[in-house]
Write a structure and sequence with these properties.
By secondary structure, this protein is an alpha/beta fold. The chain has one domain: Rossmann fold (3-Layer(aba) Sandwich). It has 11 helices and 4 strands; from the N terminus they run αβαβαβααβαααααα. Helix 1 crosses helix 2 and helix 2 crosses helix 7. It is globular and about 50 Å long. About 35% of the residues are buried.
Length: about 250
């Protein structure tokens, strides 16, 4: 069945409105990375709640300055408030404290460093959500910005960008997110930007070793991709299942 981007856009907007009304909520805070996912999510919330109830946050940490300028493109277009909360010093302080534990090699700390950044961002977003809820007298939620392809292969940080209060695009593939972005008129530079994590100086697809279009095809029909690609996708999916469930002993 052909994806009806206009209809799905309307449904997500209604989903957000209904949830906020039912739970007497006020606003949303989300990290604006300068990429398509956060741009689309921002557009959805502006349509659902009004620009005055959307607060975007840039969270640089040894980041590419272009990310901040692309984030501003999104906030300028939709008209919501964008604040900057630089976590570079927090990250550096963490690394300084770590040096007291031993002289670790860069290769040994690489994965920990990459995952520390989204965890610091998560803590920052929740701090700001609580702060602005208090200051403005309305409850702010933290929105997730992960799409279906990322989630399927576990391309997110446990305790980082996996933590949020509402998830508007988690059931849409990358191509579907772009189609929704076209309906919402997300700035083209942002919508068609090659996805990267803003952390490791690699594109998402370079890190994963597979293309998002192949992940989307595999989700729809496992036999639609070649055997080598299918094996890579299934290996990623299986290896990251632990991110979704916490094993809990029940007496």
């Amino acid at each position: 069945m052909k994806f009806d981007a206009k209809k799905e856009t309307e449904r997500v907007i209604e989903f957000i409105r209904d949830y906020y009304k039912k739970n007497n909520l006020g606003g949303v805070i989300l990290g604006i990375s300068g990429g398509k996912d956060s741009g689309v999510v921002a557009g959805l919330f502006v349509e659902a709640l009004g620009k005055e109830n959307v607060l975007g946050v840039t969270l640089p940490c040894h980041s590419n300055p272009e990310d901040a300028s692309d984030a501003k493109l999104v906030s300028d277009y939709y008209g919501f408030e964008l604040i900057n909360f630089d976590i570079t010093n927090a990250f550096d302080s963490f690394k300084t404290e770590l040096s007291e534990l031993g002289n670790f090699k860069d290769e040994e700390t690489k994965n920990s460093d990459i995952n520390l950044k989204p965890r610091l961002r998560m803590a920052s977003l929740y701090y700001l959500a609580a702060l602005y809820s208090s200051v403005r007298g309305k409850t702010y939620l933290v929105s997730g910005t992960s799409n279906k392809c990322e989630l399927y292969v576990g391309y997110f940080t446990k305790g980082g960008d996996s933590v949020h209060d509402i998830s508007p695009i988690a059931d849409f593939t990358v191509d579907e997110v772009i189609a929704i972005g076209e309906v919402l008129k997300v700035p083209e530079k942002v919508l068609y930007k090659k996805p990267n994590d803003g952390l490791s100086n690699q594109t998402d697809e370079d890190k994963l070793g597979v293309k998002y279009k192949d992940i989307a095809s595999y989700i729809e029909d496992e036999s639609s991709v070649d055997g080598e690609t299918a094996a890579k996708i299934e290996k990623l999916h299986s290896a990251n299942k632990h991110k979704f469930n916490i094993p809990t002993y029940r007496k």
